[in-house]
Known about the structure:
The complex is a heterodimer of chains A (about 210) and B (about 500). Chain A is mainly α.
Amino acid sequence: MNRLTGLFFCVSLLFGASWLGLVAYPYLTFAGLRQSKDEATGALAPLGVPGTATQGARIYAANGCLYCHSQYIRAKDEGSDIDRKWATRRTVARDYMFDRQVFLGVSRLGADLTNVGVRQTDPQWFYRILYSPQTVSPETSMPAYRWLFVTREIQGQPSADAVKLEGRDAPPPGYEIVPTDEGKALVEYLLSLKRNYPLPEAPEATE
Amino acid sequence: MKQPVVAEPELGGGTTAEQVSVSIVDRSIRIPVLMFFGSGVLWLAVASFFWVLASSQIYTPTAWWTLPGVAWLSFGRAYPVFLNCLVYGWATCAGIGTGIWLLSRFTDAPLLNPLYPILASLIWNVGLLTGVLSILVGLTSGNELLEFPSYSAFILFLALVMVSLWAITIIWNRKPGTMYISQWYLLGAFLWFAWTYATANVALSLAPAPGVTQPAIAWWYAGSLVDLWLTPIALAVAYYLIPKFAGRSIYSYKLALLSFWGLALFGGWTGMTHLIGGPLPVWMITASIVAKVLMLIPVLAVAANFHRTMESDYGGLRDNLPFRFVVIGAMVYTAYSIEGSIISIRSVAQVTQFTLVTAGHTQLGLLGFCSMVLFGAVYYIVPRLLNRQWLYPKLLTAHFWFTVVGLGLLFFGLTIGGMIQGFGLQDPQVPMSAISDLIQPFLAVQNIGVLLLAIANLGFTVAFTLILLISAPARQRPVAIEQINEASESTEGEVSVA
């Protein structure tokens, strides 16, 4: 074995260690996750995600929501996430087992969205904050996602999911602002973010 | 195993024979290196545009000049386009160009088939272009620094394999006996980057990893990208140019070896510090924190080595612009790494995690360290390839000062603003809207910093275009640039140490 072969070998070996530890190990371990079954009720958790929500996850990625919003909760002694009432327990690997794409996120310019579907159950709230974030929270630096909506003439009855807006943002009389299919899918996805079922490995945080 | 010999970078002995052979080497790699540099400079201009846009949008999301309501120019797309153009467009292109130049110099043999790296640079740019367009229309993977869809990633990977095979072959066939420390770093960089890039893309799009394995792999990749690709490339440049400029051989080979092996050992483990408290096994995150802290060993070894090589003689920085860029970049590397270790410690991360501090840290590494060193490399290499001088020395000086001041403002704004944001986030009584309000002035400061950096990069683009287009005959050279070039030239010939 000449010197250069040795160097090659060592350089690859050192790097290969991190590859085994941080890539191969989780790949094999988390492929084997199963749902948890409640002893008393037989309820399974977590449950799968509906199809439109999966569609919406793609819109979430395409519009870069993940650059300002996180989707994980630290344990009570590791941060203020639980005190902020974003969740009642930390999140664990099993919470994400059905997610086609996992957006943990590393920035919190906006609120954590782990359980946003628990906090807000009205699609209207989501439509409003997506169409005109400053009407929901004046100081926010969140951009408006108006391309997820169309303004159209009201045909007969107004649509049920037309966005209720006032003042400057309101559509001209006879018109309404409705979410596109993409907008609906995104909101469907956000509404589906409910990681509030019990898991044995992550007990509810106590005071 | 016996340690391979690490020889000092070529110094002194500026015989005619050596000068001639260098110029033959330079002529053979002129086009490929300039293609990589040129596309790098163009992508830097693109990155700067999107950077200004994204940072303005965060500061005033509703102002008309931040172009609200245009899907493909919205923050969620401008930001990843900026980051990807900066990393894969500018830093990686400039890094590959510098790598080709350095490796050819060390081998001292002209490039036999320049078409091969030219082709690689074309393929790389096709991959980048499709990737950037995909992000703009909303076809992204949703993993930071891996936003390019799989087809773009595959094109990029092809180019990367071409370049890496070339680099490894040329190191393999080097003259027996000598191996410069820069060659070690380049060998590592080209081996590791292709490996990490392939792994991350296969595990995230071809055979999607289950659940939380995705972010684990994505952050392993991001850590490796910085520590095992951009860092070793920039250090290879610094280890070559600093002794050359200082007119001395590197202070200690043993320290250089320590810094190389330290990086190789810890570099792949650092990424999980982004996910402290996350839904991953605790040992993975702890291993990353440990690696990040132990990384101080190779970092301080680099710092000590460079400092002793300079022998506290920093006077040359005044006249020699490429030197100034490289030395400041190397100094920022030390500061950046120390900051990285500090913000990785769990108790500190409780405050700084999820805040602008981490963004400031990343941008300090990408701009203050990697880009500064690569700017120095471009300023040093291009005149040698073209046998021309940089026009308008004031433009180059302005580039330097705009970069330094812009970076200072950016770092100050993001770090102080981020700490305020972090303490705010930690206190559950402080609502999110109040935090937005508190950090507003700091976002303004970073916005000005980004604007200055963009102007600096524009100046750099202009300077690069001018040297490509206009041949400045030696006699009409402005006086100041003569000094710049003499100062850097003098170390190639007979070295006189003042």
